[in-house]
Structures are given as structure tokens and as C-alpha cells.
Amino acid sequence: MKILSAQQIREADKQTIQNEPISSIDLMERAVSKLFESIDASYSDDSSFAIFCGKGNNGGDGLALARWLFQNDYFVQVFIIEHSDSASEDFKENYKRLSDLEVGVLHISAAAEIPERDDDTVLIDAMLGSGLSRPLEGLLADVVKSLNTLQNERLAIDIPTGLFADDNSENSFDVIFKADVTLTFQCPKLSMVHKDTAHLVGQIEVLDINLDEAFIERTFSLYSYLIPDQVADLYKPREKFSYKGTYGHALLIAGSYGSLGAALMSGKACLRSGAGLLTAFIPKCGVEIYQSALPEAMVISSDNEEVISGLPDLEKYNAVGVGPGLGTSSEASKTLENLLGAFDGKMVLDADALNILAANPDFVNKLSTQTILTPHPGEFKRLLGLQELKPDYLERLREFAKKHSIIVVLKDAITAIAAPDGQIYFMDYGTPALAKGGSGDVLTGIITGLLASGYEPLHATKLGVYLQGIAAHFASDETSEEACLATDVIHNLGKAFRTLS
Ligand SMILES: NC(=O)C1=CN([C@@H]2O[C@H](COP(=O)(O)OP(=O)(O)OC[C@H]3O[C@@H](n4cnc5c(N)ncnc54)[C@H](OP(=O)(O)O)[C@@H]3O)[C@@H](O)[C@H]2O)[C@@H](O)CC1
Ligand SMILES: [K+]
């Protein structure tokens, strides 16, 4: 699903009105019918709603929604924030339609005029949407700040008031409505997945309001938001007449004394992601542990007792994963350098492999075009030699992936995958259950397994991020976000695969 800018969405809106054709007010009514459907499916009949409306079309949506809710027996109150003397045409029309009904409407000229309401009223933000043209100040800023202090459940229509759809680098975040859920029209907006502002949006629900499909198709965007159907399209079921060789041989280079767990979790995740065979190349001290804990894997040990050293013959491997628990010893660094010189197949680098890259910037030039790097924000910063990630971090990510013709996965609550052609794909499958040691090792293993079993790098990456997220959701449903372990995630990979077929 493409992420379009506010400008592009306005154009899509215009094209739809022209080409379908449909009047603007009917398009608004269609959008609001989708809003209502979503709200009606999520709330019980006795729910009550307080809708805060601005005077543009976002406010028009709010007024129309009030009518739909009222006519379906929900309790609803409307507050019109008088931020402007004028109002949009569709606002006026919906104001008229609402005035025929017995819905309480209050005009607010100062934040203090908003009456108190009980805690279980759901607050709906229909103040401003994609028409925001400058940071909030005055009345709207006061209202937003005051609503942000309340504990009520909070829903934003299209986009939280005060948040720009595209660029918030000059915005002040304390005057943006903080939503638990944002019901957004047609496509997600960049600010909803940007790491600085995603937390203001809450859960994103995209409502298809049938804007001009042909226009959207031919509109260029560097950003996409991957929905489950798009990921499922990448999945290739195993064939009946196949054998272990069909699904490739993975090599995992991982582990050091005290960090063999990382190598084990990664190996287990690799095998649970479909690799035909796995060989783990680990330091000598780990051989017995590894073989008893993961009998399905073969093991080659390095000469060194405690750290990885040397490199096995690479010829028979279809994919290599390197980094989990590796440490940054000079031996491991030499191994990585040799590996990059000797192997130009599909490869994933994570954890200490990334730290070694960061410490040896010239190694980056040796990466093959089938390489995937999976840094978290801290590792990404080090890799690029940055003190901090600025609001333009997505540009840095894109440039880095393009320059080296590799895939870079910036792991976060919403993960961003940069492809060598400059496209960035956002994957919103994370859960706080993954905020734990071992998660990165599991992802490395999953992607390595998918690569070995025949997926091309970009497909393996998208599938891998999805599978880990979904498995983590299953695992935390069983255990809780707190108690969920990386190994629980591995155990649930099977269930996650089932969602693909
Ligand atoms: N696209 C679609 O497909 C569909 C879109 N729909 C809906 O339309 C929404 C977009 O509507 P919109 O264009 O009327 O803009 P909206 O967000 O209501 O704000 C405009 C008003 O805000 C004002 N204003 C701006 N900044 C301000 C500030 N800082 N402080 C104070 N005022 C400020 C601005 O005034 P001005 O800048 O002129 O002073 C103007 O009065 C969209 O989000 C969606 O909900 C659906 O109904 C149907 C399908
Ligand atoms: K809004």
C-alpha cells in the first residue's frame, strides 16, 4: 500500500470527484460510512462519544459521523472549536444535516468552555486533518493540550490534529492530539510510521474510501506500508516432491564464550523458517551444548576455544547469517573480513557483525549486492557514524542502502526496510514483547532460513519481519508482553507461517 503525501491525497480526492464522478459531499458521506463501520464494530451499543470538530472538512467528517452514531443509537455530543470565522462548504452542509437531529452541539471559543465528561466517553478528534498548514497555536493548541491531559480513550479521524502528514521536523509535539487509534482514509501518511511521531498516532487503521485507483496506481511514492495480503503474496508453499536439498543449506556464523544462546536461538529460528539444512560455525567451547540443544543442526567449530576464528569452506552454502553473539574480537573481525571477500551469495549481517562493520568502514565496500543488514537504531547510528538520528533519518537509510546496493532493515516498533532501488517499506507488526534480548538473533535466523530455502533477499526480508512480528503476537497472547521470551517467539513461528497460506 503506497504512502502518499498530503498533496497527493488532495489530488486523489480531486481526481475521484472529477472522474468517478461523485460530489464532494457524497465522497465525505462515503468516507464517514467507513468510519462508522469501523467504530460500530469496535464499540458496544452503550458507548458514548464526544466529537471535537474543526471547521474544515475534517470537522465536516466529525459532524457527519455524529449523525451516523446518533441515528444508530449511540450517545454523542459535538463540540465545534471556533478557530475560524469561516467554514468549508461540506462542513456547513453537514452542520445543517445534523441540526435536524437532537444532538447536543456546543460552540467552543476557549478551552475552559469544554465541560467535564465521564471517563468512559470516547474522545473523537475531528478538528484538523490533512489541511493543517502551520503548527497549532491559540485556541486549537489550548484545546489539544487540554484533551491530552484526559485519561479517556481517544480516536483521531484521518490524522491527529496538529500532526502534519509528511514532515514534522519543525513541529512542536506537545500540541498534537495524542491518539490511541487513528482511522485514516485510503492510505497511511508518512508521519504515522516515522519514528519521531508514530507514537502520537496509536494503532493505524486504514479505511478504503475508493479514491481513484488509476490515479493512485500512477502516482509515485518512495514509501509503502505493507499489509498482510501483500506479504502473503510472497509466500511459496513447499512442494510435495521436494527434499532437504530443495530448501538449501544455511551457514550460521555466531557465538562466543558466554553468548552461545544467541547462536542457538538464531539457529533454531533458521530451521523453523524452512531451511533444509543448517550448519552452525561456532567457537570450540560451544560444540557440545549446541549439539545437544539443537540436534537438527550440524556444527563446525573454529580452532579458537572462546571466539570465532578462521572460516569454513563456503562452497556448499546457499545463504549465510553472521553476527549473533559473535563478539568483536580481532579474530571475529578477521573472519568477517574474509567472509565478505569470499562469499558473494545471500547473506544477513546482524549484531556484532554490524559493530565490526562500524569499526571498519572499508568492510562495507565488500558487501555483496545480496546482503541484508538488520540494525536497530543504535547499531544504525554507529554504522553511519552519526551522533543521533535526526528527523531525516529515512533519507540517510535510503542513501546508505542505495549507495551500497544492499537491503537495510531498521528494526523498531514499526520497522523500515530500505531496498537498493531507494524504496522504503514499513512493516507495522512489532510488539513490546520483542523489546528483549534475543529478538535480533531470532530475526537473523528467520531471514537466513528463508534465504536458504530459496527466497530472494527482499522477499525473505519482508517475510521475515512479518513472521517474527506475528509469532511474537501469538507468543505474547499466550504468555504476556512481559513474560514472552525470544524462544517463545521461535515456538510460534509455525502459527505465523499458517497465516500466510
Ligand atoms: N482527502 C480525501 O480523500 C477526503 C478527505 N476528507 C477529510 O477532509 C480532510 C481535509 O479537509 P480540509 O482540506 O478542509 O482540511 P482540514 O484538515 O479540515 O483543515 C482545514 C482548516 O484548518 C485551518 N487550519 C490549518 N492549519 C491550521 C492551524 N494550524 N490552526 C488553525 N487553523 C488551521 C484552515 O484554515 P486556514 O489555513 O485557511 O486558516 C482550514 O480552515 C481530511 O483530513 C479528511 O478528514 C473526507 O471527508 C473525504 C475524503
Ligand atoms: K483529526
UniProtKB/TrEMBL annotation:
Subunit structure: Homotetramer.
Ranges for domain YjeF N-terminal: 9-217
Positions annotated to bind K(+): N58, D125, T161
Family annotation (NCBIfam families): yjeF_cterm, yjeF_nterm
Co-factor: note: Binds 1 potassium ion per subunit.
Domain (YjeF C-terminal): residue spans on this chain: 227-500
Protein species of origin: Owenweeksia hongkongensis (strain DSM 17368 / CIP 108786 / JCM 12287 / NRRL B-23963 / UST20020801)
Keyword set, alphabetical order: ATP-binding, Isomerase, Kinase, Lyase, Metal-binding, Multifunctional enzyme, NAD, NADP, Nucleotide-binding, Potassium, Transferase
Coiled-coil segments on the chain, per record: none
Residue numbers binding (6S)-NADPHX: 57-61, 129-135, 158, 262, 325, 376, 441
GO molecular function: ADP-dependent NAD(P)H-hydrate dehydratase activity; ATP binding; kinase activity; metal ion binding; NAD(P)HX epimerase activity
UniProt: AMP binding residues: K411, D412, A413, I414, T415, G440
Organism superkingdom: Bacteria
Annotated protein name in UniProt: Bifunctional NAD(P)H-hydrate repair enzyme
InterPro entries in the cross-refs: Carbohydrate_kinase_pred_CS, CARKD, Nnr, Ribokinase-like, YjeF_N_dom, YjeF_N_dom_sf
GO biological process: metabolite repair; nicotinamide nucleotide metabolic process
Pfam families linked to this entry: Carb_kinase, YjeF_N
Family: In the C-terminal section; belongs to the NnrD/CARKD family. Belongs to the NnrD/CARKD family.
Function comment: Bifunctional enzyme that catalyzes the epimerization of the S- and R-forms of NAD(P)HX and the dehydration of the S-form of NAD(P)HX at the expense of ADP, which is converted to AMP. This allows the repair of both epimers of NAD(P)HX, a damaged form of NAD(P)H that is a result of enzymatic or heat-dependent hydration. Catalyzes the dehydration of the S-form of NAD(P)HX at the expense of ADP, which is converted to AMP. Together with NAD(P)HX epimerase, which catalyzes the epimerization of the S- and R-forms, the enzyme allows the repair of both epimers of NAD(P)HX, a damaged form of NAD(P)H that is a result of enzymatic or heat-dependent hydration.
Enzyme Commission number(s): 4.2.1.136, 5.1.99.6
The reaction(s) this protein catalyses: (6R)-NADHX = (6S)-NADHX; (6R)-NADPHX = (6S)-NADPHX; (6S)-NADPHX + ADP = AMP + phosphate + NADPH + H(+); (6S)-NADHX + ADP = AMP + phosphate + NADH + H(+)
Names of the cofactor(s): K(+); Mg(2+)
